Amino acid sequence: MVFPALAGPSHRLGSIVSSDATWSPDGKTLVYSKGEDLYLAKRDGADSRKLITLPGGASWPRFSPDEKTLRFTLNDPKTNSDSLWEISVDGTNLHPLLPAWNNPPAECCGSWTPDGKYFVFQSARNGRKDIWALPEKQSVFQRSGGVPVQLTAGPLSFSGPVPSKDGKRLFVVASQPRGELVRYDAKSGQFMPFLPGISAEGIDFSRDGHWVTYTTFPGGILWKSKVDGSERLQLSFPPMVAWLPRWSPDGKQIAFQGLPPGKRWAMCLVSAEGGDLQEIMPGYGDVGWSADGNTLVFSDTPPFLEPKPSNQVAIHLYNLKTRQVSTLPDSAGLYSPRWSPDGRYIAALRIGPETIRLFDFITQKWVDLENLPLGFPSWSRDSKYIYFDSPGADPALYRVRISDHKVERLVGLKDVRLVGRPGAWTGLTPDQSPLVLRDIGTQEIYALDVQFP
Q1: What pLDDT score does 392 carry?
Q2: Cα 341 to Cα 291: distance, rounded to the nearest angstrom
Q3: Which of 2, 107, 115, 417 reaches 20 to 30 Å from 453, CA-CA?
Q4: How far apart are CA 349 and CA 359, in angstroms?
């Protein structure tokens, strides 16, 4: 759609369907992306033609000032990482712009300065985004551009740089991601700060209820503390990112998902007293414990994180003593497992249509519990209920009773802005009070004065 800058109705450009688009500097040519394809067309959308099919989804396409080159952000579907790529407008010379510069790559949203001397873009490192400038080659004797120069260094996270017409300013989005951990109080019907209102997610409590483990948001650093917030101990350190920690039944170890620098997600263990991290096996498994602490349950990486057929995702058990892996029967298409505290059941989510499925170790069979869009299931301490959140038009927190599959709506979330990584996280306290991470972050547009050489 095209929207007038001042006023007036919007209108479509021909029959083009696109996820991102922009005009050339002279306004005569349109480049747009659709899935993994890049297209060129006239300014009004006519005479559209495919330029190239890419090895991933493209976004933020930009013409060079001389209109000979296109640069864009490419999303790798295998690693879900973003990087900057370049191609000539005739469809030749496709290549990454900054190969091996940042491992893993996390660059996006670049634009040339009007004089073509610099290419500005955002790069994510250590949980924050900053703006960088890549000098372009200035003559035929200079084979390539220079090394990127960092323009911002926090404390805010800067993204989406757009140079002003005179090239003396950069307009950027400055954000400070932060959440407030809150507990739903059924008596007052209000969400109250918990622990006390720290910016953390993935909260899990030790079986004795005395200790808590969590990861900071957005940094992804693993901590443990007493439930009153005292005796804090940092268990992981940047640049590793940690997520979804789980206490062992004896309270001596914590299992979690870890993302080491330059690698893929892996299931890890760490002593509750701190020390070296132990990688159990690769994969994004959403790991959990058996009641006796001898076995870990996990799933294969689901399709929305790593493209694959749903029948290649299943629920597995890892025996910590024998290091043997087995697969639960009939668990194909299931992910995000949760082992009940009494050890009898494993709950898991089914990939489309979304359903909570329940495996009974006594009957060795699966049953469906609920048919709602849902996330982050949590068992009650007595193993009688599963609590979960349901997004959508009327987001809310629910629980389902195991004995008769009765579903109960606990509280609506329509007026509560949630946040988390990668989606809005919800959890449960030992007394069955729902926990959510309320979004209290800020986002504003800044104009940065910049003096390029």
Answers
A1: 77
A2: 6
A3: 107
A4: 11
